[in-house]
């Protein structure tokens, strides 16, 4: 009986341990979301910004935005391979310009302010997230090289534009 | 004895050269090589042809334009996958450290601006169809130019695809020109030279769009 009880307690813990994220050598946090289901309406995510999970049937049109986005559209773009660069509101124009320059000409990019995030500047992709040390942190380029349409995206290379991509902002 | 040594030395040189040649020929294309640049640049260029086609397919345009748009979309999407497959097998990321088409003048390579892409949603169906044909003819002209670079990559599978792109897009350029004439529209004169448009007017997905999307 005791053993069964132990198992009952251990199993969920073990499961939790398995889905827990880790951090790789370059400081990128790794997650394990399986490709997400489609779900209408507002979706609440565990991570801010999110790094995977259920998402809206529409995806966010890739590009640079000056207003916050809705998580549930952005996550769908991330499933297609987009990297979402987010900064806290109040970030200096100079820093935003540096970030804009860093993504110039790249196509699977979302960039927007993000209120409720734990660090000033972050880069997120499906199952991967990086906290930037500054707006010109060289780690961003490595992150983009690896995760823009990267292997971790369940539907890498599917468009993040097109007539049904939403351009909605908050 | 001296002769044996000379023969042995020659053998070492020949084997060394052969081994080096073999290594060069089987080694996958490296980061920064023309083949890798071609794969990444052309994936971006193709993606916009698919995007333009997806937009026009949502409009009530004529059957020949729908057929053309579907043909372009399915063909180029398949080729995007093919080029992604190469990068995978070569052990390289799709994106890379530099933006695709870095240093190229995108307008001179036939890329449409974000506003031109959006205009396909808002123009009347009749005008949108002409706009699509005009944008596609320029896009193909740039695509053929970029494919010429692929022909010089020295990598057989890249050269095969580049050759196919040159052939099919050249044929489609004549087809589209005919369609434009049928509709009483002028065929665009040609692409601007790379020197005429500043890099800042590059129609990346990422630069011009944000301000009107607040």
Automatic annotation (TrEMBL), chain A:
<keyword id="KW-0732">Signal</keyword>
<dbReference type="InterPro" id="IPR021454">
    <property type="entry name" value="DUF3105"/>
</dbReference>
<dbReference type="Pfam" id="PF11303">
    <property type="entry name" value="DUF3105"/>
</dbReference>
<feature type="signal peptide">
    <location>
        <begin position="1"/>
        <end position="22"/>
    </location>
</feature>
<feature type="region of interest" description="Disordered">
    <location>
        <begin position="149"/>
        <end position="170"/>
    </location>
</feature>
<protein>
    <recommendedName>
        <fullName>DUF3105 domain-containing protein</fullName>
    </recommendedName>
</protein>
Automatic annotation (TrEMBL), chain B:
<dbReference type="InterPro" id="IPR012347">
    <property type="entry name" value="Ferritin-like"/>
</dbReference>
<protein>
    <recommendedName>
        <fullName>DUF305 domain-containing protein</fullName>
    </recommendedName>
</protein>
<dbReference type="Pfam" id="PF03713">
    <property type="entry name" value="DUF305"/>
</dbReference>
<feature type="compositionally biased region" description="Polar residues">
    <location>
        <begin position="198"/>
        <end position="208"/>
    </location>
</feature>
<dbReference type="InterPro" id="IPR005183">
    <property type="entry name" value="DUF305_CopM-like"/>
</dbReference>
<feature type="domain" description="DUF305">
    <location>
        <begin position="36"/>
        <end position="180"/>
    </location>
</feature>
<feature type="region of interest" description="Disordered">
    <location>
        <begin position="187"/>
        <end position="214"/>
    </location>
</feature>
